[in-house]
Predict the structure.
Amino acid sequence: MKTVVVKVGVSAMQSEERIEQAAQYIEALKEQGNRVVVVASGMAKEKSTLLAPIAKWTANALQREQAMLMATSSQIAASSLAVALQARGHASTALTAQQAGVKTDAKYQHARITAIQTTKIETLLAQGSIVTIAGRQGVANGELTYLGDGGSATLAVALAHYLQATHVIVLAKDSIYTADQAIIPRAQRMAEISFDEMLEFAHLGANLLHPRSVELAKKYNVKIFIQALTEQHGTWVKGEKDMEKEMIVRGVAYEADIVRLTVGYDSNQEVSLASLFTTLAKHHINVDIIVQATMHQAAQTVSFSIEKTQFAEALKVLEDNKQQLGFTFADFEIGLAKVSIIGSAMASNPGVAASMFDRLRKEKIAVKMVSTSEIKVSVVVPQEDMVRAAQALHDEYHL
């Protein structure tokens, strides 16, 4: 008998009607002869609801207590789904992380899965029960841990690996499209996408799958089918085999609120990229695109992009470490955005970047920074031109 793991997102737990729809979907899988394990992310508005009673104290709360509080949301969701399935006449058992054997490292928040002891899950499946599991919980040394962002999808992939499931189904707000339909209504649903392409989409702001879950799926070759609860069609996330090869560029992604920071040096001897980015990393500043300019008889500069939310902290870190890092000035530019084209076939098709730059030139959109990989080209542009750039590139590559 085949095993299927279903990850139910928060969007499917927003109302009694949505929970009933999720239960009906799971019921159909069971009636098709599958063993079904459900991973529940949590309930809607969990942070505002759970943290409201202690809001004025949370800044000083111990991570252990915050983790225990936040982890309860997925426990409520797992129990709610089990009750809904029981009401439909199915045996269903809800499990906490400890009961499900989910082991993590000792971090109370943003814990990482280290192993899953599936004995209890296997016993319940053998008895014909649909097992629902709290998706953001783990256990380390007898203590409850919180898996954090992307935790439930990552747990679903890990369970699929341990249980040798055929695939993971992710019930989300929507499947994967060639671009955000909010700005490009003509964007098309993708029937399938590679792990590498999905990783790029996830890192570039597509919130349907967290990068950590895709990384784990790629490592263990666990196929993922992502779809909206109310739609029949979806997108397969899987390896390169049988992938569509005729489209060089598969999609366009964008990210707003980018800041470019530039530090300048009087001479090459004072430039130490290792010291600069090690210092930023120690303060958890996430650096994206990096450009170094080295010219004779001119100031040497290093520019890098960060998210707007880290701007103030990054400036403080630079100022506090200015003497140690050896730079003479720091400058910045706000009001920027990043627009990217993605496609695994780009690696074997030269000229893609050139056509991208040419189209942006024709649109009179200034390119501030550029970053490339085998399957992605990203440009930093003025934020006021972000939507127009995304629309133009979507049109350029006939998506």
Residues 184 and 391 are 6 Å apart (CA to CA).
